[in-house]
Write a structure and sequence with these properties.
By secondary structure, the protein is mainly β. The chain has no helices and twelve strands. The termini are far apart.
Length: 131
């Protein structure tokens, strides 16, 4: 059974950077699509970035393109979310989620990842962006 644990959240000033980590155990990520979701205060979970190994495809929401990337370390069975030039409105809880057999090329600006598509979730890590 695949399990996910996020880490790396914390406090950062606007314009700063953070690198979140999603560590997987119980199974290799080779056949899963991994998506990072953000949930702001009182808001819904929003799909930010997605990566899959089976197709080698990625997706980044328009709001984070050129600022966020989703690298992975196959040997460590981890997926990261590198966030640069963070904005105040990007504070919240960040979750990584997985779905078997998924592929990220299916997503675009009009059809982003949605939480109901993913059945394995980590506990989340909090990001605070404030001056």
């Amino acid at each position: 059974q695949l399990r996910l644990v996020e880490s790396g959240g914390g406090f950062v000033h606007p314009g700063g950077s953070l690198r979140l980590s999603c560590a997987a155990s119980g199974a290799a990520l080779d056949h899963y699509a991994i998506t990072w979701f953000r949930q702001g205060p009182g808001g819904e979970r929003e799909g930010i970035s997605c990566a899959d190994r089976s197709q080698g495809s990625t997706y980044n929401a328009d709001s984070v393109k050129d600022r966020f990337t989703i690298p992975s370390d196959n040997a460590k069975n981890k997926v990261y979310l590198q966030m640069d030039h963070l904005k105040t409105e990007e504070r919240g809880y960040y979750f990584c989620a997985a779905v078997g057999g998924g592929w990220c090329a299916a997503y675009d600006g009009a059809d982003p990842p949605i939480p109901d598509e993913f059945d394995i979730w980590g506990q989340g890590t909090q990001v605070t962006v404030s001056s």
